[in-house]
Amino acid sequence: MKKLAAYLLFLGLITVTSCQDNDRTDDPQDWTIPSDEIFDGGPGKDGIPSIDQPMYTPGTVVDYLEDDDLIVGVINNGIPKAYPHFILDWHEIVNDRVGDVRLAVTYCPLTGTAIGWNRIIDGEETQFGVSGKLYNTNLIPYDRMTDSYWSQIGLECVNGDLLSRQVETYPVIETSWKTWNEAYPNSFVLNTETGFDRSYGVYPYGDYITNDDKLFFPVEPFDERLPAKERVLGVIDGGVQIAYSIELFANDRLIQDGDRLVFGSKESNFIVAYNNSLGLQDIEMLNGELPHIAKDADGNMIGLDGRIMEGPMAGSALEAINSFIGYWFSFGAFYPGIEIYSL
To answer: What is the structure's pLDDT at 5?
Structure first.
């Protein structure tokens, strides 16, 4: 662990900080997760700095992204924003506003999970920061209003005044820059004017993404049903817990799982899930016809974000499902026994 912290300090990923944790984090009884499985990642609180004043470049003039670069996309009130992985790798949280939504884009590079969080809690606006602590090698953010600690993948407060409070999520779409830019050419893109000196474009964790045997911290339980770093879409919605591997979508595919519609393309690098709240019939994928990904028998053209972009129901939208993409091992650890969808 000390070697990892020293390595990250060398890279400039973390900074030395004098900010100390709240005393209650030392008491095992104050946590809803096993305190002996919470690890200090090394940097300390805010040692990995969140981006609190994000700056953007119009997508039409972006020259710092390659087609295959992954981004996390958000859309609200017709405003699309993209957050490149290569910036999130170094900051993990962006406190932002998209239209009328106060949003924190939380991203854990060790579990590959990007989740949008509502920053309004009990009617008050807060920011989230990086605590420096990890559980099952996953990011533990804290909120700056109450200094409570939250589990990113667990989607709840695990320590502090808001203990056991559920996270209110906001839909995000993880995909390649090429796919996002074709779907939303008017997007704004987070740029590297963050106020911090980081080696953006240099991945800080070596071969971590491609090495299934490399984990920096313990994971329990460790589910071996799929390769550890296989990317899956996990649907965690009410009592539903099910994972859809990107490998199911080697050819553009729509999976209709009851009322659940899961659209995916390994080539275009996206998986998104919605409830068929509009009762669409005879839906088929539209390969390579972005901004539309599918259409139904009545000519309703469906966009990446579930909106009906053209057709009789134009302006309406499919209901979003609480879901996010991550490495398989993380879903197996946080949701033991989670179902794996198979064709």
So the answer is: 45
Give every residue of the chain whose pLDDT is below 70, as ranges. 1-29
Q: How far is CA 125 from CA 102, 119, 157, 322, in A?
A: 8, 6, 16, 22
In this structure, the number of other CB atoms found within 10 A of the CB of residue 214 comes to 13
Tokens of 257: 């799982």
3-state helix, strand, coil in the chain (%, to 5): 15, 40, 50
Backbone torsions φ then ψ of 330, nearest 5 degrees = -70, -35
Rounded Cα distance, 141 and 91, in Å: 12
What strand order describes the sheet that includes 149-151?
38-40, 128-135, 138-143, 149-151, 156-159
Is residue 46 a contact partner of residue 19, using CB atoms and an 8 Å limit? Answer: yes
End-to-end, the C-alpha distance of the chain in Å comes to 40
Q: Strand 169-170 vs strand 113-118: parallel, antiparallel, or unpaired?
A: antiparallel
Q: Reduce the DSSP state of residue 258 to 3 states and report it.
A: coil
Per the document, the length of the chain is: 343
